[in-house]
Amino acid sequence: MKTLILTLLFLIGNSCDPISKEAPVQIAETTVESVDSNDSNSLPPIQESMNPGEVTLKIKIMEVFDSTQDICGVSQTNVMKMSVKEILSRGSSIVNLPKKNDEALMNFLIAPVDLPLNTLIEAKAKEGLCRDASKTYYTIISYKIVD
Predict the structure, then answer these.
(1) Terminus of the chain with fewer CB atoms < 10 Å: N or C?
(2) Count of C-beta atoms within a 10 Å radius of residue 134
(3) CA-CA distances (angstroms) from residue 55 to 22, 25, 64, 134, 138?
(4) Which helix (H) or strand (E) holds 44?
């Protein structure tokens, strides 16, 4: 008796399957436009070789501070005002990726040596969350002079 009821429920369930009654879906052919890699709105792909929360930037030094500066309400040393020229690569878990021509205060993990104003550098930076978690800041962990 149980077998008959289960078989009956199975047949009713299969006959009411909405997928089998629908008309076949026609797929329209579309072309994918290539994205210009120099477009300011395009993001670099996530690099699996980079650590999460890290980004490689090409930045220009706008201002050097000799004294400590407040970043996210915390007093930091080795702070410089930077202008982002290009985002070269990024790791996963970036919360607030800077955009091209953004200006921001960034601190160096180790005090930089011989970095005059208007120097263009390629820097690997680690993103950190501010106390309110709606803003982020970057600490430069390594760099090299580009020009």
Answers:
(1) N
(2) 9
(3) 48, 42, 22, 19, 9
(4) none
What are the residues facing 104 on neighbouring strands?
82
Here the tokens at position 27 are 């797929």
DSSP secondary structure string, 54-83?
A: EEEEEEEEEEE-SS-EEETTEEESSEEEEE
In the chain, where the domains are located: 54-145
Backbone angles phi, psi at 94, to 5 degrees: -80, 125
- Looking up tokens 């020009």 gives 147
Burial class for 69, CB neighbours closer than 10 Å (0-12, 13-18, 19+): middle
Q: Exposure of 120 by Cβ count < 10 A (0-12 exposed, 13-18 middle, 19+ buried)?
A: middle
Local confidence pLDDT in tens for the 147 residues of the chain: 888 888 877 777 776 655 544 444 444 443 333 334 444 456 777 777 788 999 999 999 999 998 999 999 999 999 999 999 999 999 988 889 999 999 999 999 988 888 899 999 999 999 999 988 888 999 999 999 997
